[in-house]
Amino acid sequence: GRCGIAYGSSSGSMDPVRAFGRLLEDGSMAGVSSTSYIQMMAHTAAVNIGLFFGMKGRIIPTCSACTSGSQAIGFAYESIKAGRQVLMVAGGADELSPAGAAVFDTLFATSTRNDAPATTPRPFDRDRDGLVVGEGAGTLVLEEREHALARGARIYAEVRGFGSNSDGSHVTQPEAATMAVAMRLALADAELSAAEIGYVSAHGTATERGDIAESQATAAVFGRPVPISSLKSYFGHTLGACGAIEAWLGIEMLRRDWYAPTVNLEVVDPRCGELDYLQTPRTMQHEFLMSNNFAFGGINTSLVFQRN
Predict the structure, then answer these.
(1) How far apart are the C-alpha atoms of 193 and 307, rounded to whole Å?
(2) Any residues with CB less than 8 A from the CB of 272 and at least 6 apart, and which?
(3) What per-residue confidence (pLDDT) applies to 18?
(4) Which positions are annotated as active-site residues?
(5) Contacts for 26 with CB less than 8 Å, ≥ 6 apart
(6) Nearest alpha carbon to residue 109 among 127, 89, 93, 129
(7) What is the C-alpha R_g of the chain?
(8) The pLDDT value given to residue 19
(9) Which pLDDT tens digit goes with each residue over 36-70?
């Protein structure tokens, strides 16, 4: 088959995981069925899409926490660029669950503004206190350009570059230097200079270490106050879905010449890099944007899109 799938999530569904936990703890089979393991497989989203559409091409499941969706887009792009596939369904999905949220609670990474939910998360803000876990799915159809034109498909944007690497140093503490390398890899793949990028969609989780490292890396790459904002300020951290959702929204902003600010950003943390942090909506016309995501495990991704 020439049509494939690259799709990811940080894990499978949590309900069957809890059911298996009860089985291990007290031997209870309550809630365990013949499909329980299928539901908890990390690649279940990719497999289900393939089954639903009857797709016969390659399946590339990505399970890399917060970069699952962005890696899926990048790997789909590379498969098409290499001539291995002509079309790829790419993206990521994750569902909200108490167990998933508890993971971040135990790391003291989540916001505690439970009584004022409208004031959080606050990416890059001096008074941020952590991320807010969300859920969702984002799906893009990537296609070889000539194939898309031949069938009269509507083209929203072009993937121009992809960069991905790893810190190789720590599971949860991000490293600005390797984040910067991922961005430079994407620029090199796109054959563009940093000066040609008009806007950066930040990973922007509203964690102290993450915001500071990411913003400093971005400032180092661009060498100027490039416009930047975090879309997680609207819907929280959707984990494996965030890279795909944010790529899609970035493409829409590129098409509309309108860029969303970071919600709740009042005073930028002075430890963050010197960038043009959008605090109000802005009308801008640009040819290219960069969308960045950084995950536990030190996995870094950067995508470059061009308006069509």
Answers:
(1) 16
(2) 124, 211, 212, 215, 216
(3) 80
(4) 66, 203, 237
(5) none
(6) 129
(7) 19
(8) 82
(9) 888 888 899 999 999 999 999 999 999 999 999 99
pTM: 0.95
Q: In sequence order, which residues have a C-beta less than 8 Å from that of residue 256 and are 6 or more positions away?
A: none
CA angle in degrees (0–180, nearest 5) for 228-216-118: 50
Q: Which two tokens stand for residue 249?
A: 């929204």
| Paired tokens of 25 | 């703890």
Assess contact for 230 and 255: CB atoms under 8 A.
no
Domains of the chain: 3-24+33-307 (3.40.47.10)
Instruction: Give the C-alpha separation, 217 to 147, whole Å.
Output: 37
Distance from C-alpha of 95 to C-alpha of 280, rounded to nearest angstrom: 30
Question: Tens of pLDDT along 286-300?
Answer: 999 999 999 999 999
Rounded to whole angstroms, the Cα distance separating 218 from 181 reads 10
Q: With the CA atoms of 196, 198, 204 and 209 taken in that order, what torsion angle do they form, in degrees rounded to the nearest 10?
A: 40
Below-70 pLDDT ranges, the chain = none
Q: Which of 159, 176, 158, 163 is nearest to 71 (CA)?
A: 163
pLDDT at position 27, please? Answer: 82
